[in-house]
Amino acid sequence: MLTVKKFVFNPFQLNAYVVYDEKGDALLFDPAVSSPEEMQQLEAFISENNLTPKLLVNTHSHIDHIIGNRKVAERYQLKLAAHRAGQPFLDHAAASAAGFGLPFDGVKEIDIPLDEGDTLTLGNHVLQIFYTPGHADGSLCFYAEPEGFVITGDVLFYQSIGRTDLPTGDYDLLQKSIWQKLFVLPDETTVFPGHGPDTRIGTEKINNPFVAIGIE
Ligand SMILES: [Zn+2]
Ligand SMILES: [Zn+2]
């Protein structure tokens, strides 16, 4: 079994997810803490539940998702897994943080490049990786088929989709990513998005105003 714990961090109301197995091994998805209090919250959960963080993973490299990378990686001696196409965002991260007035202690470089068709393993659990550009180059989704959930970053939200007006954003491409990679998953699959509430694939297929395909 995999358990998913959600945190909401930083002024962008970013959803960070700690995914852990029965042994307590954990993957940290976008643990974008931006204050000592948020870091403490994360640390408290990890120690109270006897978790062992194994890997830091980014859904994509926008500042609201990567701002905590360095601190968290140093605290738990973690490598960072992400898509290399997000590198330009990392190169621009310091300027981006300054623009938003966010404290920033530097970029964590990508140690493990991920791409379509790769997998992440946690004990005997496997998460499939989809490359889903359109919101930002380097956007990945992580699908746990037996557990029936997918972590979508800023690709698909409850009743919405990621912005496409930022650099490398492309509305047609984002729709294609969602239709070809996410809407082919079972309707009951839980969607854990990068912002806002959870949803399900079937709900978004019918109701999402940007990408719904309606009822056949
Ligand atoms: Zn984003
Ligand atoms: Zn975001």
Structure notes:
The protein is an alpha/beta fold and 216 residues long. It has helices spanning 36-48, 63-66, 69-76, 87-91, 93-100, 171-182, 201-207, and strands at 3-9, 14-20, 25-29, 52-57, 80-82, 112-113, 119-122, 125-131, 140-144, 149-153, 156-157, 160-161, 190-193, 199-200. The chain has a single domain, classed as Ribonuclease Z/Hydroxyacylglutathione hydrolase-like (Metallo-beta-lactamase, Chain A, 4-Layer Sandwich). It has a 6-stranded mixed sheet with strand order 1-2-3-4-5-6, with helices on one face. One zinc ion (ZN) is lined by residues 60, 62, 135-136, 154, 162.
State the shape: globular
Classify the helix fraction into a percent range: 25-40%
CATH-derived topology: Metallo-beta-lactamase, Chain A
Largest sheet composition: 6 strands, mixed
Percent of residues in beta strands: 25-35%
By CATH's scheme, which homologous superfamily applies? Ribonuclease Z/Hydroxyacylglutathione hydrolase-like
CATH class: Alpha Beta
Q: Which secondary-structure class do the elements indicate?
A: alpha/beta
Compressed to H and E, one letter per element, the order equals: EEEHEHHEHHEEEEEEEHEEH
**Mean pLDDT across all amino acids:** 97
Q: Write down the Rg.
A: 16 Å
Report the uncertain regions: none
Could you tell me the number of beta strands? 14
Bound ligand species: zinc ion
What strand order characterises the main sheet? 1-2-3-4-5-6
Named at the architecture level, the CATH assignment is 4-Layer Sandwich
Number of domains: 1
Please tally the helical runs, counting DSSP H or I stretches of 4 or more residues. Answer: 7
